[in-house]
From TrEMBL:
Keywords: Electron transport, Transport. This is Electron transfer flavoprotein subunit beta. Residues 24-214 form the Electron transfer flavoprotein alpha/beta-subunit N-terminal domain. Its cofactor is FAD. Heterodimer of an alpha and a beta subunit. The electron transfer flavoprotein serves as a specific electron acceptor for other dehydrogenases. It transfers the electrons to the main respiratory chain via ETF-ubiquinone oxidoreductase (ETF dehydrogenase).
Amino acid sequence: MSLKIVVCVKYVPDAAGDRRFAEDLTTDRDAADGLLSELDEYAVEQALVIAEEVDGAEVTVLTVGPDDATDALRKALSMGADKAVHVTDDDLHGTDVMGTSLVLAKAVEHIGYDLVLCGMASTDGSMGVLPAILAERLEVPQVTLLSEVSVADGTVTGRRDGDAASERLEASLPAVVSVTDQSGEARYPSFKGIMAAKKKPLETLDLEDLDIEPEQVGLAGAWTEVESATERPARTAGQVVTDEGDGAKQLAAFLAERKFI
């Protein structure tokens, strides 16, 4: 069987960098170096594992973001993906999850797909709702938060682990799936893979290509708005409690004073 897999990935600010808001209260993507969201690497890995088991499978990585987001796509291509699609447009600035899901849905339909794979959340927004919204826009089944996933005979099957039990889930293709960071360690790109990635096709699209009006995305089309933001206060020295038999009482008083109990 042939299988067209699309993996949605995100270019995010490095969590180890100085992440902050810009003057318009959107994420300042120039304040820190960007990279492929770590949680999305698990989705790329699972797509590659599935493709290795299915003859004729093709893996396309898709992102929506600024020009530098090609770095995330190149990382996924060097891991083994076959091709990439980058949606970029100045009018996308400030787009929230609703607008992003619209753009991804249009792009996925443009590419053509049997299976869409996503990470469990992005490491910047951390909302975790995009896979479900994307499935609704595409009007296909969703199977989310899987720690194990496989495809056979037109059906995607997986295991979702909860606090008290695990459950087996399945859906007919086409479908949208998200995987957790327990699904399997992502492979490191080899030197051969890095060199090969430079020659793999990378298509660039804008809003006009996807028949999306500017007012549907960006700050103007956002369903959410950040009204204010304050920098986290600098870390201060802690309070040392000397236990002379009343340490527990001192700790309880400290917590009560700050309304933790």
